[in-house]
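In response to the reviewer comment on reproducibility (Comment 2.3), we provide here a single inverse folding case reported in full, input and output, so that an independent group could reproduce the run without further information from us. The structure tokens appear first.
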């Protein structure tokens, strides 16, 4: 049983999110997702997500290729979460290429290519720009 873990905010859920989660799941038998808490997201990206952490967690939990979901409360705790959830593989988007290589002593670390031309930030900008 190979356990895969990944992390993200997954705000304003879009197809890039679906694709990375689908591909992450294909690397093992079970996918665990750490959804950034609202507080962590604010400290990381300087904005409160559009969707609350409970709603983001509910959306991710509803996906057929996701098995377990929890809140990631701090970036400093990644190693602890990997340990706690007994993850064999850590998957991150390649916007993080090289940034998590220090976890290679704990588990396999895989960076997957991002889906081109879509992001939460861009969706928010497009919606804002069409406001009257
Ligand atoms: N992701 C992806 N392809 C995209 C957008 C995101 O593969 N086009 C992946 C990221 O690499 C990450 C996960 O989805 O592993 C969650 O990313 P998140 O930061 O929540 O989404 P973004 O759309 O990148 O959000 P933002 O614009 O706020 O940075």
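Designed residues, in position order:
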């Amino acid at each position: 049983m190979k356990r895969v873990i990944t992390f993200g905010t997954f705000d304003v859920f879009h197809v890039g999110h679906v694709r990375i989660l689908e591909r992450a799941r294909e690397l093992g038998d079970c996918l665990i997702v750490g959804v950034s808490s609202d507080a962590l997201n604010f400290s990381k990206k300087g904005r409160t997500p559009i969707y609350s952490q409970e709603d983001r967690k509910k959306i991710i939990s509803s996906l057929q290729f996701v098995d377990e979901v929890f809140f990631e409360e701090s970036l400093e705790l990644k190693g602890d979460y990997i340990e706690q959830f007994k993850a064999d593989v850590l998957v991150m988007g390649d916007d993080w290429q090289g940034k998590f290589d220090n976890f290679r002593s704990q588990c396999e670390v895989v960076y997957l290519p991002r889906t081109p031309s879509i992001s939460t930030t861009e969706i928010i900008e497009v919606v804002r720009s069409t406001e009257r």
